[in-house]
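Tutorial, part two.
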Amino acid sequence: MKINNALQNQKGSALIEVLAAMGILLFAIIGMMISISYANYKSTLNYHYRVALLRAEAELQVIKLQHSSYGTFGNLGTQEFTIRSHSNAKPIKATIFFDVLTVNDPQTTLKTSYTKITARVRWQETPPMFSLYVSPNDYKEVVVREDYFYERVQ
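Running the prediction step on this input gives:
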């Protein structure tokens, strides 16, 4: 009789149901916040990759113009620039490194050589708000290569 009476007593069950609903809602909201933070981080990262890629391509186009106009590759020293995703964002310092290599390719002909110029852009990302998946010392890098073929004089 006491067991039957205890099962019919509903005091406190509404409070438990409300707490359980709040726990489920809290879990869903935290999941959404982490998802939004991760999506924002990836979107910003893709923008930084695009800016770095466009800057590397622009520098290679300037080098190509100098080579076709003056016959020299010009200054291939290290250059720094900033990446800014929006007006309130902290600027990120990026560095462009150039590597030049002259290759005598025996597969094409004996008279052909080419110069390979590689532009390497490096920068350090700032971790997102919920950084469970990003190292604070994580450097990102974009590499673009341009080949300049010419006939070798023997």
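The chain has two helices and four strands. In part three we will examine how such features are distributed along the chain.
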